[in-house]
Design a protein that fits this description.
binds acetoacetyl-coenzyme A, alpha/beta, single chain, lipid metabolism, 15% strand, 261 residues, 41% helix, six-stranded mixed β-sheet
């Protein structure tokens, strides 16, 4: 079923609790123009607010997850306009989504496309996936996390090489470096991502939200503050019915039935 009416993305529900968002500018290799990103923000916010949704899968086409910010839209932008409008600032809305977002990447994930994948919580890669930050070839640098999230994911030397030379890395290298969680077989990346979403959908959604919040806090906090924050989140879950149910079910050797309360 198709949900919402958008021009640059497709929204569907391939499995219970899972929303699939497909970037749909195939002729432009899913170049991320401002209209597309507005729709993406709208669709992810709607999924976040919908109690029947537990996880979001974000994908592109076989050839391209996304080949970056739309260069044709961007080429005549002037500094004053970029600064006054906080150009690309609205991309960070994706990082405020509370529900897990799984990127299913086939083909090119370049520039803003690589940065978009890195804003997601889990990246699964098809064998054809290629990640890169080629902005340097355009006389600029990444503007949506390519110098920051990539460095945290793969370390300084690889991030420097990718940002300074524009070298792409393939799926296997991306997995070896920890940029993606795994490489799946050809043609199965969306199905595998939906399966991950379905697994997440069966857990306590309160615990899922806390787990995402905890992992993300590790990027912002010192180890001491981070583990303290984690412990407080952990304590708070003892106020939920799902904790009572989860632990009672274990003790009684049965499957838990979480109510997200
Ligand atoms: N913006 C706008 N249009 C793009 C695009 C982009 N980022 N990437 C591809 N397209 C368009 C092409 O212009 C082409 O359109 P036409 O058919 O109208 O000519 C169409 O998509 C197909 O692309 P190609 O013919 O180039 O396909 P290819 O297979 O020969 O090459 C590619 C594929 C290597 C990915 C090449 O398209 C390419 O280098 N794209 C640009 C990659 C890039 O530089 N990305 C970074 C953008 S800047 C950025 O993202 C800033 C940021 O940090 C936020």
């Amino acid at each position: 079923a198709s949900i919402g009416s958008y021009e640059n993305i497709l929204v569907s529900q391939p499995a219970s609790g899972v929303t699939l968002i497909t970037l749909n500018r195939p002729k432009a290799l899913n170049a991320l123009n401002s209209a597309l990103f507005r729709e993406l923000n709208d669709a992810t916010e709607a999924a976040d607010a919908d109690p029947s949704v537990s996880a979001i899968v974000l994908t592109g086409s076989e050839k391209a997850f996304a080949a970056g910010a739309d260069i044709k839209e961007m080429k005549d932008v002037e500094y004053a306009h970029a600064y006054k409008t906080n150009f690309l600032g609205h991309w960070t809305k994706l990082t405020t989504i509370k529900k897990p977002i799984i990127a299913a990447v086939s083909g090119f994930a370049l520039g803003g496309g690589c940065e978009l994948a890195m804003m997601c919580d889990i990246i699964l890669a098809a064998p054809t996936a290629q990640f890169g930050q080629p902005e340097i070839n355009l006389g600029v640098i990444p503007g949506a996390g390519g110098t920051q999230r990539l460095t945290k994911a793969v370390g300084k030397s690889v991030a420097m090489e990718m940002n300074l030379t524009g070298r792409f890395i393939g799926a296997d290298e991306a997995a070896q470096r920890g940029l993606v969680s795994r490489v799946v077989t050809e043609g199965s990346v969306v199905d595998e991502a939906v399966k991950v979403g379905s697994i997440i959908a069966k857990k306590s959604q309160i615990a899922i939200q806390a787990a995402k919040e905890g992992v993300n806090a590790s990027f912002e906090l010192s180890l001491q503050e981070g583990t303290r924050f984690e412990r407080r989140l952990f304590h708070s879950l003892f106020a939920t019915k799902d904790q009572k149910e989860g632990m009672a079910a274990f003790a009684e050797k049965r499957k838990p039935s979480f109510k997200n309360e």
